[in-house]
Request: fold
Amino acid sequence: MASDVQELTISYTEDGVELVRELDKEILTKGAWSTVMFRYQDWDKAKSAYGPDKYSIRRYRKINNEYRQQSKFTISSRDQARQIISALSRWIELPDQQ
Reply:
């Protein structure tokens, strides 16, 4: 387990094969509750190659000086990522509703 938010990773290796390869990450929030967004690829055993880029937003909670994953949301394709970007872009341009 990681004790510093910078150490958090989505990379996963089993039997010497990197099954999840982290390509990039953005730390969105830091603190007792931290949010990290990852860009990654899964290993496709049938093709002996990595698949397309995927994206995951994960929430971590720091307990006893260790970050533990509390929740995650996986964006499974570039198309889905574009749809999320489009919706958020429209929403943040709306006037504040009070």
About this structure: Strands lie at 12-14, 17-29, 33-44, 49-50, 54-63, 66-75.
